[in-house]
Design goal:
Blueprint (H helix, E strand, L loop, with lengths): L1 H16 L21 H8 L4 E8 L6 E11 L2 E7 L5 E7 L13 H7 L9 E5 L3 E5 L7 E6 L4 E7 L7
Antiparallel strand pairs: 1-2, 2-3, 3-4, 4-8, 5-6, 6-7, 7-8
Length: about 170
Amino acid sequence: MKKLLGAFFFSFIIVLSGCGEVNSVEPVLNVEQFSLVNQAFAKDKLGEPKSVDTWNYASSSTDAGIPLTTLEFDWDGYPSEFHFDDKDRLVRINIHENYNEESKFKKTTFEDLLQQLNITAGENMTKEAETAVAWRYERVSEKVDEIWVVGDVEEVGEIKITFDIRPFM
């Protein structure tokens, strides 16, 4: 009888342990696949851009203008700007989440946002700023140098993912 009671108790514990709440966040966009890719790769994944603009980014630390080519895409309903350097490497993506009325992004924690962007945080990730309306983290992962998120207290507005920070310093 003790063995039967022990087996029942053991089974009950196993069932209870499987009932715990799982905090699973579904990815909305797969960002890391675009780290430092060229324009041809982006076009292959997202189709033809809505617009193409070549311009000089004025760095705050130097007087030199940095040539960038910006391709504007509709990325799964999110207006996005893909910025390529003069070596045809994607160095930054700006996602305008606030223009998507059916947005799947949820502003809870930065870690949840990383999961929504399908980014695995690295061990050297550093918080540079975190307020009710903005998050800024550096050394996010091996493929992502920086992420800035701005919006309001309850919603994400714009997400800037930088794969190579050097052109913007």
